[in-house]
Amino acid sequence: MAEAGPRTNDGTNDDTGDDSRNGTGDDMDTGRTIHAAGALLWRDGPEFAVVHRPRYDDWSLPKGKVDAGEHVLRAAVREVEEETGIVPRLGRRLPASTYPVRGRTKRVDWWAARPVADAAFVPNEEVDRIEWLPAEQAAARLSYRHDAELLEEFLAGPPDTVPLVILRHAAAHAKADWRDADELRPLDARGRAEAARLSPLLDSYGPVRLVSSATARCVETVLPHARRTRAAVTTDGAFTVGETGPGQAVERLIELVADGVPALVCTHGEVVEELVNGLCRELGEKVPDDPCLAKGEFWVAHIAGDAMPALERHAP
């Protein structure tokens, strides 16, 4: 598995430039590091989008700063759309770029991305031209070596990948204070807020099949996204605590992978570790040292056939 982007001490992808998991741009521009995000935008051909910035008179890939409090996934999507007019659908994560800018360090988190639909480009003060070029021409046009290296990294791996999201349910009412059946234990106020924040992040990867544990707290976690995307939620005992075992859960996950359809599985902390470990073993990849998730966090495995070229972790 080609891991890319920010790394924690276990070698897996995290979502910020430090060891936290909050995924936002908080405090990223207050010190020596400027945090930005963008995408290597490509379409069939393949052709790659390069943009001209009149302020610098250079050619680069679409990117921009992560706003304070903004999640890096949303920043990547927003910046590509603002600069090119194209809404991107994020694919596999690519290595982050780090380089000096006027005495500070700039870090850019990158994804491969496809256009959701064709859009007419309207020149703006940041970008006045966009060109779609084959790989060799795009590499020659790019003004910076780190952008050309990103293109090389993309070409070294599979172009198309299928996202598989493994999501731990959001914060729920305390078990000790719940007197009814455990499967009916709902999200608390914090969990409802987390569930609402998750949906725009999941949108970054495009439509997904929604599969959930048959418990209220898991179904409620994906409900805002189901309503937003008008998708059905299918409950599955294989991912339901108290009804499943490690072998059954992993076997069902591998079946979803074999379907080749983008999917999201919302489950419990007790099940997440087995799913991530089992998925990595099945695909012959390194198992993360810490596969566990806090409530509301999620892994995104990018699948290409029987390989997993990227794995990343995010929080809402």
From TrEMBL:
Keywords: Hydrolase. PROSITE patterns: NUDIX (PS51462), NUDIX_BOX (PS00893). Residues 32-155 form the Nudix hydrolase domain. Belongs to the Nudix hydrolase family. CDD domains: HP, NUDIX_Ap6A_hydrolase. Residues 1-31 are annotated as: Disordered. It comes from the Bacteria. InterPro entries: His_Pase_superF_clade-1, His_PPase_superfam, Nudix_hydrolase, NUDIX_hydrolase-like_dom_sf, NUDIX_hydrolase_CS, NUDIX_hydrolase_dom, Nudix_hydrolase_domain. The keyword NADP does not apply. PANTHER family: BIS(5'-NUCLEOSYL)-TETRAPHOSPHATASE [ASYMMETRICAL], DIADENOSINE 5,5-P1,P4-TETRAPHOSPHATE PYROPHOSPHOHYDROLASE MUTT. This is NUDIX domain-containing protein.
